[in-house]
Input
Amino acid sequence: MTETNNGEREMMIEHNPRLAERLRKFQEDYLWILTQVTLREQYKNQVVILHDRRVIGSGRTDVEAKADARQQAASRAETLPPDDETTIVLVPAMAWIEVPNPSAQAAIATENS
Amino acid sequence: MSQADRQPLFRTRLYPFVEAWPAGPGFTVSVIRFLLPASIPTEPTTLGSAGRLCPAVLAPEIPFSILPFSLREAISSGVLDAGELWRGRPVPPWRGVSCRVGHLALRLTNEIDPESPATFNILVLLPDRDPPGPLVNHVLLGTEFLRHYAFRVLISYAAIRYLDADESGRLGVDPSGACGFLEKF
Output
């Protein structure tokens, strides 16, 4: 099904259960790595290849990460998992929300009361 | 009939994501953005392939969507030149870096029909290099994208789950809990 839009670019909705499942896996893997503070610090701004929530290769680009994964697998005499069982992620650096100092907030509240 | 009475054609979840915002040279402050775990086809013409993970965040404060240089290098495919569409008009820079114009197909899960993902063709600025300051590792979805597809954006700050503050008082956000929706009618 294609929904026409008010321009040349349209939204395309494609019935494709296999693709939908793969997208859900991408989503789960990405949200998982976002919750992994240690991995995000270790691999920040690098491309990693995930398989079963384990980093099997890393590098500056996907090409470098794949080469690293091949090398690591070869060193363990293992074979690489098929591409469609892996997720390639550019890991964002961890960021935190700065909050006002709680003791200063308490002092201000006392002054205002 | 109002939108409230109709079922959207497309709906996907938004997740909270903390990002460093460059306040000035060497000085950043964090902001909460809203993330869509998306993918791009690895070959632009092969819509059936699973493609490559390509996260995107809503950025209504910027006029055009942006595919940052480092992400473009990392995913190494999927962008088509769109210079013809822009011929004769100046292309705005991004954070001081000159840009070209391209097209990117972005695929998203669709909660309305979970077995039917949606693909959107996005006009993107392609910076020539990474700007100084924090790296951006996702597509920024600007006003042009949100306006072109006439999306409805629903965000609940009350739905954001926070992690325990660390010893310096900094707060983390749990990015795995959805806090909003992007919908198209």
The radius of gyration of chain B is 17 Å. Residues 10 and 87 of chain B are 33 Å apart (CA to CA).
